[in-house]
Specification:
It is built from two helices and twelve strands, in the order βββββαβββββββα. By secondary structure, the protein is mainly beta.
């Protein structure tokens, strides 16, 4: 006589093992600027239960241009409802948190007394993968800079005057100022020309 299916049970003595560590960002094209968020995902071999009543874990990220390692904090979820084998951590990008493309890696995980088990109560292994999964995340918190471009143009006659063209930026807009000389008028004339941008585009390259 075969037993009913309800007579079966599971014997599991192995704790969940972290199988991979991934880094991503929520900014444009998967990169990060100031006030964007970096995300670290740890993927385990089994679904998890995470108890943070005694402390919340964090991940230490390294690879920033200034040589400072920074902590990503744990993002808690209801594992009883979600049934997930992942742990998520986030870092809000602040001033100077720059990192070249693909250079960020997970340096360590601080469990901080958090209890991480599988669904049967087996405690996780403390072994982590030797490397973080490859990624193309660039972190750039520096605003773009510019230098005004000045070009002198020699006029040939009163219909094609010469002068000084200055290309700069004001209140986020590109402005071309033209001080023209060579008109029939004896006084130089200063004007702002946005239409000159097309013909002078090589000056701002």
């Amino acid at each position: 006589m075969f037993p009913n299916l309800q007579d079966y049970f599971v014997i599991d003595t192995h704790g969940p093992v972290c199988q991979s560590m991934a880094i991503s960002a929520n900014g444009n094209q998967g990169n990060a600027k100031l006030n964007d968020r970096l995300a670290v995902t740890l993927v385990f071999s089994e679904n998890l239960q995470v108890d943070t009543s005694l402390g919340s874990p964090s991940v230490l990220l390294t690879g920033f241009s200034d040589g400072v390692d920074r902590q990503a904090v744990f993002v808690p979820v209801n594992y009883q409802q979600v049934k997930s084998n992942q742990m998520h951590f986030e870092l809000l990008v602040g001033n100077g948190f720059n990192a070249p493309t693909g250079q960020l890696t997970v340096k360590s995980v601080n469990w901080n007394n958090a209890v991480v088990t599988d669904l049967y109560g087996n405690v996780k292994s403390n072994t982590l993968p030797s490397v973080t999964l490859p990624h193309d995340v660039l972190v750039d918190t520096d605003a773009p800079t510019y230098q005004p471009v000045i070009a002198s143009i020699t006029g040939t006659d009163s219909t094609t005057p010469g002068g000084v063209y200055i290309i700069g930026r004001e209140s986020g807009n590109v402005v071309v100022r033209v001080s023209l000389v060579g008109f029939p008028s004896t006084e130089p004339r200063s004007e702002e020309h946005t239409s000159e941008l097309q013909s002078l585009r090589h000056l701002v390259c």
